[in-house]
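WARN no homologs supplied; continuing
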Amino acid sequence: MSRRALVVGGGIAGLSAAYEFQQAGWTVDVHEATGRWGGKILTSDVGDRLVDSGPDAILARAAAGMELVRQLGLADDIVHPVSNVPAYICLDGRLHELPEGTVFGIPTDPSVLHSTELLSEAGKQRAAQDLELPVEHVDTDDDPSVGKVCRQRLGDELTDRLIAPLIGGINASNIDRLSMRSAAPQLTAALAQHGSLIRGMAALRQRAGATLGTERAAPVFFSLPGGVQRIIDALVEHLANPKAGHLPAADLKLNSPVDLSTLPELADRFDAVVLATAPVEAMNYASVSQVTIEVSKDALEAELDTSGILFPATGGTHLTACTWLSSKWSHYHHDDSVLLRLTSGRYGDDRANKLDDDTLVATLLDELQTAVPIDGQPQATRIQRWPNALPQYEPGHRNKVETLRSNMTERHPNVTLVGAAYDGIGIPACIESGRNGARQLLTPQTASQPVGSGS
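OK structure emitted
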């Protein structure tokens, strides 16, 4: 008899779990409460171009994302960023290039900071003290915040102006409340192995062969023309119509919320249950709002030569980032106009999320004007709000997740929890979370079969 799995939640983690079950020969039911698949992965029109309104890039070094893209037959369409400058930091209305030779904003050698005006001389000298401070190792059971460790070793100025916009920006977080173990494990490893953030990042750079975040030879990210949603579309197609004829088609149901108070009954009815829905009551979330605009090239006084601009929280702007989509990706190139995505909202700062649409657009454009003057109004505008979009991995996050999963396993051994709320917010992390969750519930016999053998 065919074994049957239930997946609750049709985002990338839930669909990846369903795909894993299907490839093992299981019958799968997938229930999504909303009217579309993909969760925070969404592509929609801005002018005459399809543009991502959720994540627009996938981390290339994380194997899970690339593996799934290959299995879905999309590998030949992969594109990489093409901009000459990885990012600017906007400080007091001036644009400063992210110093080359930094990893997550941390210098790999104090000398890489000499030419930047982002830091005062005192700030540069304070950062260099990391090499002179006593060797520090994070205890196995300790989980300090990113901000605490970086401030202690590198000082407030570098932490606020470089590290916070980069690491905090990814999570829309306040790094002083952001778990280093869960959100920045590379920093934990740096201290564990080298006792210094600078020495640790230098070793990481050497292993990678180039500087992360400023690398030009081996791209850090990739995407797909037509938008990241193509992965969702391909997953849904494979689930509904598996290429291997011996695999059962999944039963895919939109607008189909599942009452989790009936979980005991569901656990009895199905051989495996994957919950790919976020436990809002168990942790804090950040809400973000995005405005994507199409602007005539003639209206821009600045040259588009970067992936984007980061706005440190210390500047007080609603803006947290401006992605220069037309410069970052060749498939957004247009001879006459450019695309810019303005992002606002971080944990603890909900000002932008409380503005009505017209005020939000006007406010973000006014703040952008201080760094990138624009003559006239946008030719097209898209507003996308993401309430409770990004889970906040506060210190102790890993222990919290382990407790949640342990409690679930004790009550229902055939039920597991997957998704961004637990294992990472990036697309590869969510894919890996979903597939690993399914693998843990597969029997040893089916788990030993090659994943994706039918695709």
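The chain has three domains: 4-41+228-282+395-447, 101-208, 285-391.
OK
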